[in-house]
Design brief:
The protein has about 230 residues and is an all-alpha fold. It has a domain of about 140 residues: Four Helix Bundle (Hemerythrin (Met), subunit A) (Up-down Bundle). Helix 4 crosses helix 6 and helix 5 packs across helix 6. The chain is flat. The chain starts with 13 loop residues before the first helix and ends with a helix.
C-alpha cells in the first residue's frame, strides 16, 4: 500500500515570510534613524541654534544699551557748554564750573582725603576737556586771525595747569600743604581765565562775526563731546 505524504501549504512558507517582514522592519527603523538630523550632544539642534541666537541678540542689545548710556552721559556733560549757544558763552560757563569745583576743594578738611581725591578727579576731567576744546579749536582760530603770539602764550600756560594737577595728584592730601597748593593753583588759573574772557577772546569774537562764530561754536561743541 502506497503511503501518501501530505504537505501543509500554509505551514511551509511561513518562516521565510516572517524573516522578510523582520528584515523590512529593521531596515525601516534604520532608515528612520538615518533620516534624523545630527543635532549635537543633546540631539536638539533647533534649541542649540535658538540659544546661540539669543546669546548673540542679548550681547548686541547690551552693546546698544551701553552705547546709548555713553552718548547720554556725554550729552549731559557737554550740555553746560552746548546750551550756552555761542562758544564765548560756553567758555565762560566752563570757567565758572571749574571755579565751583575749587570752592568745594577749598572747603574740605584734611581728614577728607577721599573727597579731595574725587573732587580733584572731577577738576582734572573738566580742565582736560576744556583745554582740548581750546587747543583744537580756539587757539588755531586765534592764529588764523592774526594772533599767533596770544595763542602760543595761552597754550604755554596750559602746560603749567597740567603741572599743578600732576603735583596735587602725587602729594599727600591730609595736610595744609595740599590746600595751599590748591589755592596757588586757583590763583594762577584765575589769571589765565580772566585774560581769555576780558582781553583775548572778545577780540576774536568780534573779528569772526555771526557766521564765523556760529561755525566755531559748532566745532567747539564737537570737540568737547569727544572728551565729555
Amino acid at each position: 500500500m502506497a503511503t501518501t505524504t501530505t504537505s501543509d501549504s500554509n505551514e511551509g512558507p511561513a518562516k521565510p515570510t516572517a524573516r522578510r517582514a523582520s528584515r523590512a522592519k529593521s531596515s525601516a527603523t534604520q532608515h528612520e534613524k538615518s533620516d534624523r538630523p545630527s543635532n549635537g550632544a543633546n540631539g536638539n539642534g533647533h534649541d542649540h541654534a535658538f540659544g546661540t541666537g539669543a546669546m548673540v541678540g542679548a550681547a548686541a542689545a547690551g552693546l546698544i544699551a551701553g552705547l546709548a548710556a555713553t552718548i547720554g552721559r556725554k550729552a549731559a556733560v557737554q550740555a553746560v557748554s552746548a546750551f550756552s549757544g555761542d562758544w564765548f558763552d560756553s567758555i565762560k560757563a566752563e570757567h565758572q564750573a571749574a571755579r565751583k569745583i575749587f570752592d568745594k576743594l577749598e572747603a574740605t578738611e584734611n581728614s577728607q582725603t577721599a573727597k579731595r581725591g574725587l573732587l580733584l578727579m572731577q577738576l582734572k576731567h573738566a580742565l582736560a576737556k576744556h583745554a582740548f576744546e581750546e587747543e583744537n579749536v580756539l587757539y588755531p582760530s586765534l592764529r588764523d586771525h592774526g594772533d599767533p603770539d596770544q595763542a602760543d602764550h595761552l597754550n604755554h600756560e596750559h602746560g603749567y595747569v597740567k603741572q599743578y594737577l600732576f603735583d596735587l595728584e602725587h602729594m599727600p592730601r591730609n595736610n595744609r600743604a595740599w590746600t595751599d597748593k590748591i589755592v596757588e593753583f586757583r590763583a594762577e588759573l584765575e589769571k589765565h581765565m580772566r585774560e581769555e574772557e576780558e582781553s583775548i577772546f572778545p577780540s576774536l569774537h568780534e573779528k569772526l562775526g555771526p557766521k564765523g562764530n556760529g561755525e566755531l561754536s559748532a566745532a567747539f561743541n564737537r570737540e568737547g563731546f569727544k572728551l565729555a
